């Protein structure tokens, strides 16, 4: 795979968060208008924060403009810059995954190429991580200028609904701009699910996650690469990937139609006894409302099973251990199952 000149493992005796190797992952789709500026600012920050101990991984997500030439030129100038070119456009979330699969540093920063998230706050994020003993420091938007009212409103509703329908907390007003430990990054890479909603997956992992408030700026140059179609795709990946609510719809309908058919039954039988209804009307009405509720009930039950198969198929770890305090003397008979995440 890639080779570069820097050893990103911490030197013996060095404990400060500033000396740990830093990897920055930047997914880029058609970013020729802004990429050089982004790189300049990123390199300046990295040189100040982790001199000689950083890498910047630029993932070209199938760009059709000069993005890859810019990346290649940058890798020739600076051996700390690594370029990864995907075979075609795979989408932001998979480009991110491709970048995370390449990291070698101890700390991993994920940032967009368009400078909406200012790289200059990185040192403060690292400090916060050290002070809080956090595994993840995620950027939380205090303000978001340059985004349309429509985007803000839909995003707002969407995240609130998503948060309500999952049994763990997905932070509001946060995107993929975050600093995390290598452990978190490796866990993300090891999760094999196909439809990836990274910020949900990070939230799902748990560990200690703290917000870092910042002002989101307008895109520095170029246009948004998140078309409405891509936004809807991401929203459906988020919702379907983290909530079984849509599948449960059958059960809600079943409950609703059962109550309705009980009322209907009373009304139909009452009318048939008290008034002159057409022969066969009462039995037909009763039959159809009972059959409708039975069908929804069966659909709901199938939905529950499908939901379980779906979750099982994601092969997410069943539990994760964040810290281990274990003073046993006896040697383990087999390698500890906790070793990977301890
Ligand atoms: N991006 C990508 N592949 C895509 C869409 C976007 O790699 O299919 C990148 C893009 O280059 C940028 C980041 O993902 O670095 C976020 O995209 P953008 O800023 O256009 O989205 P917005 O901020 O408008 O939601
Ligand atoms: Mg953007």
Topology:
Blueprint: E1 22-28, H1 35-49, E2 54-60, H2 67-77, E3 81-85, H3 92-100, E4 107-110, H4 122-132, E5 136-144, H5 149-165, E6 174-181, H6 182-190, H7 198-205, E7 209-216, H8 228-242, H9 245-274, H10 281-314
Parallel strand pairs: 1-2, 1-4, 2-3, 5-7
Antiparallel strand pairs: 4-6, 5-6
Helix pairs in contact: 9-10
Uridine-5'-diphosphate (UDP) binds next to strand 1 and helix 3.
Structure at a glance:
With 342 residues, the protein is α/β, with parallel strands linked by helices. The protein has helices spanning 35-49, 67-77, 92-100, 122-132, 149-165, 182-190, 198-205, 228-242, 245-274, 281-314, and strands spanning 22-28, 54-60, 81-85, 107-110, 136-144, 174-181, 209-216.
């Amino acid at each position: 795979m890639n080779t570069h000149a820097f050893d990103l493992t911490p030197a013996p005796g060095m404990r400060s968060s500033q000396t740990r190797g830093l990897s920055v992952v930047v997914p880029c789709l058609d970013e020729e208008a802004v990429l050089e500026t982004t790189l300049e600012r990123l390199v300046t920050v990295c040189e100040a924060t982790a001199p000689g101990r950083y890498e910047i991984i630029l993932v070209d997500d199938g760009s059709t403009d000069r993005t890859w030439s810019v990346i290649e030129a940058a890798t020739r100038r600076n051996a700390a810059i690594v370029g990864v070119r995907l075979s075609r456009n795979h989408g932001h979330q998979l480009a991110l995954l491709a970048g995370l699969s390449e990291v070698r540093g101890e700390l991993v920063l994920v940032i967009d190429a368009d400078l909406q998230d200012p790289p200059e706050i990185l040192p403060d994020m690292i400090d916060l991580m050290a002070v809080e003993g956090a595994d993840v420091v995620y950027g939380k938007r205090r303000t978001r200028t340059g985004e349309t009212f429509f985007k803000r409103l839909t995003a707002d509703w969407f995240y609130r609904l998503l948060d309500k329908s999952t049994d763990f907390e997905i932070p509001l007003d946060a995107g993929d701009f975050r600093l995390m430990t290598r452990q978190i990054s490796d866990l993300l890479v090891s999760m094999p699910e196909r439809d990836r909603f990274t910020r949900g997956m990070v939230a799902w992992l748990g560990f200690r996650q703290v917000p870092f408030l910042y002002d989101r700026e307008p895109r520095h140059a170029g246009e948004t690469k998140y078309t409405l179609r891509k936004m809807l795709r991401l929203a459906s990946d988020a919702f379907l990937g983290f909530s079984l609510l849509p599948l449960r719809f059958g059960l809600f309908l079943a409950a609703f139609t059962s109550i309705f058919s009980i009322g209907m039954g009373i009304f139909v039988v009452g009318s048939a006894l008290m008034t002159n209804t057409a022969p066969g009307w009462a039995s037909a009405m009763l039959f159809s409302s009972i059959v409708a509720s039975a069908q929804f009930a069966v659909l709901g039950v199938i939905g529950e099973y499908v939901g379980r198969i779906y979750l099982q198929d994601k092969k997410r770890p069943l539990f994760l251990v964040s810290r281990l305090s274990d003073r046993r003397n006896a040697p383990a008979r087999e390698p500890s199952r906790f070793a990977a995440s301890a």
